[in-house]
Design brief:
About 85% of the residues lie in helices and about 0% in strands. It contains seven helices and no strands.
C-alpha cells in the first residue's frame, strides 16, 4: 500500500513538473515576443514616427481646408496646366525644397527633435489637396486624387522618410559628439552620408520626372 501511494506521489510530482515547465515556457515565449516587438520598434521608430506624423498632417490639412476654404486656397490647390518643362520645374523646386530642409536638419545640432515636421508638412499639403478635390468635385475628385496625387505623394514620401531617418541619425550623432561628448570613439564618416544624400537627391529627381511625365500625358485624358 505504501509503495503504491509513493508511486502515485512520484507520478503527481512528474505531472506537476511537466505542467510547471509548460507554463514557464509559455511565459518565456511571451517575454521573447515582447522583446522582439520592442527591438523592432526601436530599430524602426524613425520610420514609424514619420508615418504617424504624415497621417497627422493628412488629418490636419483636410480639417484646415474644410473649415478655411476660400478662393485663394482653391487657386493654390487646383491642378496646374502647363508644358512639360514648366511642370517639371514646379515639381522639382517643391521636392528639392523639402529635401534640402531634411538635409539641413540632419547637419543641424538640434535638428533631430523637429525632423518629423517634414513628413507632417507633406501630409498637410496632401490632406489639403485631397480635401479640395473631394469637397469641390465629390466622387470625381476622389478618383482624380487616387490617380494623380496619391501615387506620387507615396513615392516622394518614401524617399523623404529614408532621408529623414538618416538625417535624424546624423543630427543625433552630431549632438552626442558635441554636447554629450559621447560616440567619440566611433569613426564619423561624412562621405557615407554625402553619398546617400546624393542618391536620395537622384531618386527625387526621378520621382519628379515620372510625376511630370505622367501628369502631362494624362492631362488631356483626365481633367477636373
Amino acid at each position: 500500500m505504501d509503495s503504491f501511494e509513493l508511486k502515485n506521489e512520484k507520478e503527481l510530482e512528474k505531472e506537476f513538473e511537466k505542467e510547471f515547465n509548460k507554463e514557464i515556457t509559455k511565459l518565456e515565449l511571451i517575454e521573447t515576443d515582447k522583446k522582439d516587438w520592442f527591438v523592432l520598434f526601436t530599430e524602426n521608430k524613425t520610420f514609424i514616427y514619420s508615418v504617424l506624423f504624415y497621417a497627422a498632417g493628412l488629418l490636419c490639412g483636410s480639417f484646415i481646408y474644410k473649415n478655411c476654404k476660400n478662393d485663394v486656397l482653391n487657386n493654390i490647390l487646383s491642378a496646374k496646366n502647363g508644358d512639360f518643362l514648366q511642370l517639371l520645374l514646379n515639381n522639382l523646386s517643391l521636392y528639392m525644397l523639402i529635401f534640402v530642409a531634411a538635409v539641413l536638419l540632419g547637419v543641424c545640432l538640434v535638428g533631430f527633435p523637429i525632423i518629423n515636421s517634414i513628413p507632417f508638412l507633406i501630409g498637410f499639403e496632401a490632406g489639403m489637396k485631397v480635401a479640395y478635390y473631394y469637397i469641390n468635385f465629390n466622387v470625381k475628385g476622389i478618383g482624380y486624387s487616387l490617380l494623380m496625387v496619391a501615387p506620387f505623394v507615396c513615392l516622394f514620401l518614401t524617399v523623404v522618410i529614408y532621408s529623414v531617418s538618416m538625417s535624424y541619425e546624423l543630427s543625433r550623432k552630431i549632438y552626442n559628439i558635441t554636447i554629450k561628448k559621447s560616440d567619440m570613439s566611433e569613426e564619423f564618416n561624412y562621405k557615407t552620408y554625402l553619398k546617400k544624400y546624393l542618391a536620395y537627391a537622384g531618386l527625387i529627381i526621378i520621382v519628379a520626372l515620372i510625376n511630370t511625365a505622367v501628369c502631362t500625358a494624362l492631362n488631356g485624358l483626365i481633367s477636373i
